[in-house]
Amino acid sequence: MDLLLGGGCEVRCLVRDRTRLRWLQGKPVTLLEGDLGSREVLRDGVSGVDAVFHLAGVTAARSRGEYFSVNSDGSQAVARAALEAASPPGLFLFMSSQAALGPGRADEAMVEQREAKPVTDYGWSKLEGEKRLGTMEDLPLVIVRPPAVYGPRDREIYPLFRFAARGIVPVFNHSARLSLIHVKDLARGVVAAGTGGRIGEAYSLAHPEAVSAADLPRLFGNALGRKVRGLRVPRSVLGASAAVSEMWGVLSGRMPVFNRGKVKELTASGWVCDTVKSEKELGFTADIDIVEGFDLTVRWYREQGWL
Is the pTM of this model over 0.90? Predict the structure, then answer.
């Protein structure tokens, strides 16, 4: 949003509650009040725009059905509204996830056309969203699949920074390798795909340099200015903790991101994206490496009083 506004674009944002605007507060955007089921609001809101950026989704849910209700059914509802608009958009960008492909080997950089093998309900729901949108005739679909995203405003990787600030970072698979992307780079990549992506194609958006899980304690420590050691967590402990976390989520009505499905992702050997296609077709390369990115993230967390 900020990147689009900075480029002089007119931006419309769908919000569920005008009293809880968070990062939209004070921004020069047109607000559309509704949700993914608000057919008329969606249809009117997307009419006449150059591109729809469908970024909404859930990463934690109380059930498999809830994941699919939002990430698959909800995405299809937005796309249907786009096709029914008086003046349909020229492009519909769907924010999927590397989780839709599933993990690979530690030595494998996964290309976009690789056979999808998700390991979580979240990943399956994103893959189903891709498939449903891909079958909608005349939908000018472009898909982007980011890996783990970190940076200002993020709350999903934030707990690792809090652990690191106390001197410990859990390491779930010491030999694993993974791709990451800073949120500012992701925003640039999304805009690049939304303006130059080929219809019907999917693009991985990640920093070209993969990170070893074994290096994460040192990288967190450097950013925080303190010594951080890695704590190897047995899979059995992870599974038990995830079960407790899920139980708390059911009782509280707020399912946390950490669940038994997440254990499968955390303990996988490889989450490395091949970025060649996005570099060639979109002219996009993530510029912020993990050293700079962690520094920027820690600085923001401290300024906000989160650390």
Answer: yes
